[in-house]
TrEMBL record:
Keyword annotations of the record: Hydrolase, Pyridine nucleotide biosynthesis, Pyridoxal phosphate
Protein name stated in the entry: Kynureninase
Function: Catalyzes the cleavage of L-kynurenine (L-Kyn) and L-3-hydroxykynurenine (L-3OHKyn) into anthranilic acid (AA) and 3-hydroxyanthranilic acid (3-OHAA), respectively.
Entry's family note: Belongs to the kynureninase family.
Organism: Flavobacterium segetis
Pathway, per record: Cofactor biosynthesis; NAD(+) biosynthesis; quinolinate from L-kynurenine: step 2/3; Amino-acid degradation; L-kynurenine degradation; L-alanine and anthranilate from L-kynurenine: step 1/1
Signal peptide: none
Phylogenetic classification of the source organism: Bacteria, Pseudomonadati, Bacteroidota, Flavobacteriia, Flavobacteriales
Gene Ontology molecular function, alphabetical: kynureninase activity; pyridoxal phosphate binding
GO biological process per UniProt: anthranilate metabolic process; L-kynurenine catabolic process; L-tryptophan catabolic process to kynurenine; NAD+ biosynthetic process; quinolinate biosynthetic process
InterPro entries in the cross-refs: Kynureninase, PyrdxlP-dep_Trfase, PyrdxlP-dep_Trfase_major, PyrdxlP-dep_Trfase_small
Length: 428
């Protein structure tokens, strides 16, 4: 498609967009009495309007039933999480038995490493990407330290080549081969939070297995944002937060994937708890742990129903739409935003360097932009004029055109505000 940097063209794209109506499903902050242009769904998604109904239902059942809500609520609490299995499986490409919801992301990664990071004198190294999200870095450091290894020996970072912003697939594969028989685990972010690069999870997983290692993925920026096929890719485990692209609310519950090939492996250690115990015998209060078959057997504590209610509201919306429709708009609107940035670049004396990969298959709903010649003042200008975006030092803004609630008209209007900010003009 040949894009145009005009309001009329953007409005025509919106008129042809089957997902455009979903903008009305969300609550937008207001700046200057106008709905904001929201580019930070890669940090915290907007609140769906339907969320309140789901939360109110739990509150009403709690008020009217108290403890009996576990069995007699409209959606009984003792199996509330099971409602996620099928729709969440569709989002991440998993069997219903391979997914569960519990805890928060880094907690779950630590718990999954109990099962999948089992270092030996020979195999003890972890491969991750350079500039992984800090929480992952802290997790790796504390895990290897717990097992008696030094982080500088056990953690192997795959680095970007000099002068490049993204990690090459061939360098990932070469590093896996190099570490070889010392490799215990490959654990990488499916989408790099800083650049928006999408890794070739299928190929990397196969390479890790060939080297004799387990392979897991931190899907914080990938779940709900990338077409995943975790079962078919033979991924060992994965976890993700739900509050970014899946709009479940701040700090909300995490999702987990454990491949079915591990479900019957009695030699695989895990930390056990009451909620992971045999569902049919849970209330018999038995002393010996008998795990639920499937990913639910990795649960530990009673699930937080008030946290899961907003997540379920969002998951139901995803199930209505389907990932194929989301991916189609994601690629289209991200490409239009890229076009707008290049057009504004031509019309100003600034230089924008998009450090996110160019190929749609290598990126998702994010463009990370180096603002050469511009500083924090431009970001502040955008924020004051109703563009909610993300600033990363030294001079990068991250723009996430989430397909569920951003419009093509938003992209055009952003370009005009950006141009005015660079030219130091006042937006009317």
């Amino acid at each position: 498609m040949i894009f145009k940097n005009t309001l009329e063209f953007a409005q025509q794209l919106d008129a042809n967009d089957v997902l455009h109506k979903y903008q009305e499903e969300f609550i937008f902050p207001q700046v200057n009495n106008k709905k904001v242009i929201y580019f930070t769904g890669n940090s915290l998604g907007l609140q769906p309007k339907r969320t309140k109904k789901y939360v109110d239902e739990v509150m009403d059942d709690w008020a009217n039933l108290a403890v009996e809500g576990h069995f007699y609520a409209k959606k009984p609490w003792w199996d509330y999480h099971e409602r996620f299995a099928e729709p969440l499986g569709k989002i991440v490409g998993a069997l219903p038995s391979e997914v569960t919801v519990m805890n928060t992301l880094t907690v779950n990664l630590h718990l999954l490493m109990v099962s999948f990071y089992r270092p030996t004198k020979k195999r003890y190294k972890i491969i991750c990407e350079e500039k992984a999200f800090p929480s992952d870095q802290y997790m790796f450091q504390s895990q290897v330290d717990f097992h008696g290894y030094k982080p500088e020996d056990a953690i192997v970072e795959i680095k970007r080549r000099e002068g490049e912003h993204n990690i090459r697939l061939e360098d990932v594969l070469a590093k896996i081969d190099e570490v070889g028989e010392e490799l215990a685990l490959v654990l990488i972010g499916g989408v790099n939070y800083y650049t928006g690069q999408v890794f070739d999870m299928k190929t990397i997983t196969a390479a890790g297995h060939k080297a004799g290692a387990y392979v897991g993925w931190d899907l914080a920026h990938a779940a709900g944002n990338v077409k995943l096929q975790l079962h078919d890719w033979n991924v060992d485990f994965a976890s993700w937060c739900s509050y970014k692209y899946m709009n479940s609310g701040p700090g909300n519950a995490s999702g987990c994937f454990i491949h079915e090939k591990h479900h019957n492996d009695a030699t695989l250690p895990r930390f056990a708890g009451w909620w992971g115990h045999n569902k049919e015998r849970r209330f018999k209060m038995e002393q010996t742990f008998d795990p639920v078959h499937g990913a639910d057997g990795w649960q530990i504590s009673n699930i937080p129903i008030l946290s899961l209610a907003p997540y379920l509201a969002s998951i139901d919306m995803f199930d209505e739409i389907g990932m194929d429709a989301l991916m189609h708009k994601r690629d289209s609107i991200t490409s239009y935003l890229e076009f707008i940035l290049h057009e504004i670049d031509k019309e100003t004396d600034s230089t924008f360097e998009i450090i996110t990969p160019v190929k749609p298959s290598d990126r998702a709903s994010q463009l990370s932009v180096l603002l050469h010649g511009e500083g924090r003042s431009l970001f502040d200008y955008l924020m004051k004029n109703g563009v909610i975006t993300d600033w990363r030092e030294p001079n990068v803004i991250r723009l996430a055109p989430v397909p569920l609630y951003t419009s093509y008209e938003d992209m055009y209007n952003f370009g005009q505000i950006l141009k005015a900010g660079i030219l130091n003009k006042t937006v009317v």
